[in-house]
């Protein structure tokens, strides 16, 4: 990593210049933050787990036709990704009332929603990532009408797939946050067009995941709410997905035994 120029550092990841034009190296840190970084900690192994889980999910989504920035995993903490222009919006898809939605609307946490709800937040940590309406997005030019429609359509497809994937291993997908970017595509006539693709990551840092039988939280809420056992919960998610195999040593996960093809 020291040979690469650092491009950007966020709360959970660092971006470095890639080995080829149009690529970046995404490094997953062990840093955990909550409440706009007012609460911080270092959780050993979290970055490794998020790297592996996000790799697995991105590959599965590519298989169903969702374009992503993921190219390949380089090692335990790094991915090679396509360089994109990040659209300054967080897209949240909710299946069950939890977190800020439950507080904002006075709903009991765990209330199943009549239909999946897609929300947009402006990516501004200094403002607390405020909820915004589509009218705000169009008025301030954060994304075009076509881009918003595409993000909503892809988010709902991703939601359908992830609910099935996690449901198959006994986990309910409560909600998740994703980001999209614009990838420059050169057309046959030489003009450049923007393709909207999935970026950032999908992991227990960005999803609410509850055990189907017990409603036990298996995501970042364990850190937000001082429940403890954060990396243990992330490890269980990875193990259920088949990303990690358990050793005979007290069921501890071996992070290095499963290849990209699993």
Summarize the structure.
The protein has 262 residues and is α+β, with helices and mostly antiparallel strands. 27% of the residues lie in helices and 34% in strands.
Describe this structure in words.
Helix 1 (46-63) runs parallel beside helix 6. The chain folds into two domains: 6-84 and 237-254, Phosphorylase Kinase, domain 1; 87-211, D-amino Acid Aminotransferase, Chain A, domain 1. The radius of gyration is 18 Å and the shape is globular. The two termini are 27 Å apart. The strands form four sheets. Strands 8, 9, 10, 11, 12, 13 and 14 form a seven-stranded antiparallel beta sheet that branches. A five-stranded antiparallel beta sheet has the order 1-2-3-7-6. The longest helix is centred in the middle third of the chain and has 23 residues, at 145-167. Helix content is 27%, strand content 34%. With 262 residues, the chain is of the alpha+beta class. The protein is built from six helices and 16 strands. A hairpin with a 6-residue loop joins strand 15 and strand 16.
